[in-house]
Amino acid sequence: MVVDEVEMRVHHQLDKLYKSTREKRDFQKEIVKAAEAFTAIGYKHIEAGTKLSEDCCKYGVENPNDEVLAKAASIYGDARKHAEKEVEDLNKLFFSQVLEPLRAMVAGSPLEDARHLAQRYSKMRQEAEIQAAEVSRRQARVREAPIPEN
């Protein structure tokens, strides 16, 4: 009966592992969703900033007789365009260096392997219990059946 106690302990440990890996995977998925939202907002911000910089440059070109304001708008538009380019580069870097590895981690094998191991163990245990019950039934039938003498 010691084997059964050890087996039950291992089964409980695998069950805990299964639950904790599922919780960690769900947490990682939430982090990925947040990172995706962050990059989406970043791209919307870049889009709005780029439009503003284009409009400022356009105002500067179309209104040369309003010297001070046109020149200021043009300078601001150019500066804004360069700043948006830097933000876009940062957003691309965040996407490639943070978001993609996070996605790979969520779909990664260590967590899934642990979950599949726990599922396989549980299935094997159920099959072993079914086979043990079948063996017990057959042994009982053999004991009850009369032994023919030659």
How would you sum up this structure, described in words?
By secondary structure, this protein is mainly α. The chain has one domain. Helix content is 91%, strand content 0%. The protein has three helices and no strands. Helix 1 packs antiparallel against helix 2 and helix 1 (2-62) runs antiparallel to helix 3 (109-144). It is rod-shaped.
Class by SSE composition: mainly alpha
Number of strands: 0
| Share of residues in helices | over 70%
**Which spans have pLDDT < 50 for at least 5 consecutive residues?**
none
Please write the string of helix (H) and strand (E) elements: HHH
Strand content: under 5%
Global geometry: rod-shaped
Total domain count: 1
What's the multimeric state? single chain
Distance between the termini: 39 Å
